[in-house]
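Re: weekly structure request thread

Next one in the queue (290 aa):
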Amino acid sequence: MTLTVRVPASTSNLGAGFDCLGLALDVWLEASLVPGRGGSRPRYAGTLKGLDADSDIVFRLLAERDALEDHQLVVDSQIPIGKGLGSSAAAVVAALVLARLVTGDPVDRKAVFRGAAKEEGHPDNAGAAVFGGLVLAGDRPTRVDLHADIAVALAIPGRGVSTKSARDLVPGAFPREVAVQQSARSAALILGLTTGDLELVAFGMDDRLAVPHRKRLIHGYDMAAAAGLEAGAYGVTISGAGSAVLALGPPDRVTAIAESMTHALTAEDNSATAATPSVAESGFIVSADS
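Done, posted below.
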């Protein structure tokens, strides 16, 4: 029997929701365990084409759990790598779910979330990958409803960003006034995203902790942000650790917003592509075929 799990991409932070807010996107990683000789070389497609198994999170985690006996791993991902779109979280979730399917353990979403958050270190991306939609990963992961007037626009540079490098740029301590400002913006962001109060969304997307330090890693970021706002975005920020630039805006304007940001990056010698993925309302999806 072939065991398959599909896991959505995600964007995290969304501005001031630093490390606690994730949104699942309708871009997927699909991983399957196909009956066959255990230990066979994995097969990769999509954005993972040409990947070395030694660098594959899914393969490593399954091997550590002795879940590859009598199976070959096949992974096809459409999630860009190193762009702040939850590719590693999707891989971790896929591996943990497949390991449970192989052993016959119940695929409990809360348990998968706990394991993914511990393994990957990003509860915001893990929450979105497991539960879908907009997830507040605080004391426990909580789904909240994204208002219908809010849609996603992305400008995705060809050059990626190392998550470690991006994290290293964020100071370990901040002045009290910055912490207070961030708290206010984070609360405003959640309220604005759920009620459709667009002034609160704009206020809340103006992150004061990470973006001011990380944007230097994305050549042309300031120009892209300005272009997105001019095209009608409510706010512009870095998707996760980057390098993708994320805007939230009206559904009928996101294509123009994504293209404007993309043109701005490309004009600054940071070639990029535009994307307007819809929200993935489902987290991971499991199937088994005989």
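Residues 2-143+279-289 form a domain with the Ribosomal Protein S5; domain 2 fold (CATH 3.30.230.10). The first helix runs from residue 57 to 64.
Next request, please.
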